[in-house]
């Protein structure tokens, strides 16, 4: 009896320790493609801002502070993601704090409508915060109507008050900036405003933040890029090199992630006036996001750069969640974007790893593309991002809008009550057709597709008129399929379980043979380890 009691007690301790381990693992998890909450379960609303780790600890505790804009429409979309909202109405600038970059505490609204609307209701955009040691104050730089507003506070979480507005015209030729972020060089302690030209956004500048005539201001201006228009301007430093990042001028939509590299923050940046596309970001337009800001996690074992992308979902309808964070890798000085749905970060060591529940499909909800595809207008596309279409019979997929099938479908409001986002895969043709739409998932240089058993899931609906219609997975010579050629008027979830993956490669896709005008829509495709 005594032995049984000891055994039971040991089991309870083991279970408790196991529970703690699982909780800690979950606490370190970054989950994209969902709406984020604070650690007490409240909506986390922060767009167009940045994370800052100030050199001066507050009350002896070193924390991360995250600032961004809370738009009034954000919670409306969160509660009804089938509605695409036309406006972005400034509500406040909230401040969140964290010690691990995963669990965030709401510190309060450090800027309110009343704070910024002194001269009438206006637009408030991208912003960042710098610690100004000469004044022992924190300065927030805000895109404000047609100029740049500087606000100051005695603490990172205190109320920021109106300091001054600066007109950029004498410096760059426009009164305002195009897009902007604040970057702090931890090695020097100096902070900089990174911004673009206000009209056309075809130039990018760096200005040091400091004191001029007793007030916080910009001390200088260096043009570091002139070329194709860019927005979402932001910067990070890694192994003594400065990386200047930006996105396409696509409005609210996702973009490729472009960059330049320099040894000095004021340049020269290479390649000169010709930005490079980040490897790994092309298959889903940087995890269906736009460059927001970066943050460097300098841990005890390694340094990890976090790409923090904005997904303006409530305005573009392009998928769930507002913030998409992905870890960067490097081959020498060449950056690589790891597009992950779920991953774990250890802020103390700087180490990261793919989470077991990561979805390996790229552009699985078909939201990366801006328009009907094929698109003859910028960006010119014949294929859906991340996917390949093989026409066996039927009209070729081409830029000929009269003959080519349209290979994505714009979801209705009722569709979006069931599936995610604006768009889905569209399999149809004006004549009898046979087509294969597929994606090959493989290990990347930095993310391994582990051997194991996986589940492929999708939502589908289709008309009559299909001789065959199937979802399949092909891995290491094994082919599994799910047939669904019978009519599905409403969305149906289909899945294939126990897909054996070996050698880091699997092909997933849809095979269709239909009569003229038969159609099938596919959305929310996922491939997750069991």
Automatic annotation (TrEMBL):
Keywords: Glycosidase, Hydrolase, Signal. InterPro entries: Glyco_hydro_43 (IPR006710), Glyco_hydro_beta-prop_sf (IPR023296). CDD domains: GH43_RcAra43A-like (cd18823). Residues 1-25 form the signal peptide. Belongs to the glycosyl hydrolase 43 family. This is Family 43 glycosylhydrolase. It comes from Flavobacterium gyeonganense. The lineage of its organism: Bacteria, Pseudomonadati, Bacteroidota, Flavobacteriia, Flavobacteriales.
């Amino acid at each position: 009896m005594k032995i049984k009691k000891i055994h039971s007690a040991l089991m309870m301790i083991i279970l408790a320790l196991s529970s703690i381990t699982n909780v800690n693992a979950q606490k370190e998890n970054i989950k994209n493609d969902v709406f984020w909450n604070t650690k007490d379960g409240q909506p986390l609303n922060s767009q167009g801002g940045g994370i800052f780790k100030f050199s001066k600890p507050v009350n002896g505790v070193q924390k991360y502070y995250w600032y961004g804009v809370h738009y009034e429409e954000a919670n409306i979309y969160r509660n009804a993601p089938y509605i695409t909202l036309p406006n972005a109405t400034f509500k406040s600038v909230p401040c969140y704090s964290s010690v691990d970059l995963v669990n965030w505490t709401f510190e309060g609204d450090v800027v309110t409508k009343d704070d910024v609307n002194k001269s009438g209701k206006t637009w408030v955009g991208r912003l960042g915060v710098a610690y100004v040691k000469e004044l022992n104050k924190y300065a927030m730089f805000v895109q404000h109507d047609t100029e740049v507003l500087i606000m100051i506070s005695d603490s990172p979480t205190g109320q920021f008050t109106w300091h001054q507005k600066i007109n950029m015209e004498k410096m760059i030729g426009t009164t305002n900036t195009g897009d902007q972020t604040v970057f702090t060089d931890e090695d020097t302690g100096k902070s900089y405003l990174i911004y673009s030209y206000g009209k056309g956004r075809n130039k990018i500048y760096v200005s040091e933040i400091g004191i001029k005539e007793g007030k916080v201001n910009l001390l200088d201006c260096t043009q570091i890029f002139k070329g194709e228009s860019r927005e979402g301007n932001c910067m990070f430093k890694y192994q003594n090199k400065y990386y200047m990042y930006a996105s396409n001028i696509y409005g609210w939509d996702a973009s490729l992630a472009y960059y330049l590299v320099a040894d000095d923050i004021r340049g020269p940046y290479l390649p000169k006036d010709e930005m490079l596309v980040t490897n790994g970001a092309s298959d889903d337009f940087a995890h269906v996001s736009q460059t927001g800001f970066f943050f460097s996690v300098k841990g005890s074992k390694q340094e990890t750069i976090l790409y923090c992308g904005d997904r303006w979902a409530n305005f573009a309808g392009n998928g769930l969640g507002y913030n998409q964070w992905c870890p960067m890798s490097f081959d020498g000085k060449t950056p690589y974007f790891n597009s992950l749905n779920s991953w774990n970060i250890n802020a103390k060591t700087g180490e990261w790893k793919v989470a077991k529940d990561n979805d390996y499909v790229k552009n699985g909800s078909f939201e990366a593309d801006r328009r009907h595809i094929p698109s003859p207008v910028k960006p010119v596309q014949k294929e859906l991002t991340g996917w390949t279409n093989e026409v066996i019979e039927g009209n070729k997929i081409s830029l000929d809008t009269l003959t080519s099938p349209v290979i994505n479908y714009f979801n209705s409001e009722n569709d979006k009550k069931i599936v995610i986002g604006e768009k889905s895969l569209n399999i149809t043709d004006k004549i009898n057709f046979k087509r294969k739409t597929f994606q090959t998932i493989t290990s990347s240089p930095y993310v391994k597709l582990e051997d194991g058993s996986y589940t492929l899931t999708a939502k589908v609906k289709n008309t009559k008129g299909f001789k065959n219609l199937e979802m399949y997975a092909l891995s290491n010579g094994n082919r599994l399929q799910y047939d669904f050629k019978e009519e599905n008027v409403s969305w149906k979830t289909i899945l294939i379980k126990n897909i054996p993956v070996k050698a880091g490669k699997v092909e997933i896709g849809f095979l269709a043979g239909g009569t003229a005008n038969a159609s099938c829509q596919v959305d929310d495709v996922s491939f997750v380890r069991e």
